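Input chain follows. Return structure tokens only.
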Amino acid sequence: MLCSGFDSRVNDRGNRMRLPAGRFKYDPAMVAEPAAFRPFPYRITLDGGGVIETEATLVAVQGGPRTEFGGGSSYGGGMRICADAVPDDGLFDVTVVGDCSRATLLKVFPQVYKGTRLGHPRPCASWYDRPTTVRVLV
């Protein structure tokens, strides 16, 4: 699993917090991060496809031809950002969450644990491809 954007910033903030201890740092960090968060400009290239340039809240890449590269459909304690990922199908699942408001982030992000964010109307795109290379530049 490769993730870049909001969830990475939340993880970094949580790692720098002294309290609460352990895995409980993520929730308060998730509430605090939107105040400072701004979308990142990304340049995404998939084999055989064009270049996608966009500002996004989050970019996630899961799966691929080698299952040791993030096999499975979840990461980080059960977050299902690439909810439809199948670990052995040989596909890279690429999810891009577009620019969205702080309120939307706080409302939708918990839904990632259930994999239900796929039905949310905010800008979100998913690509499924059989590339040997996925490049994500921030």
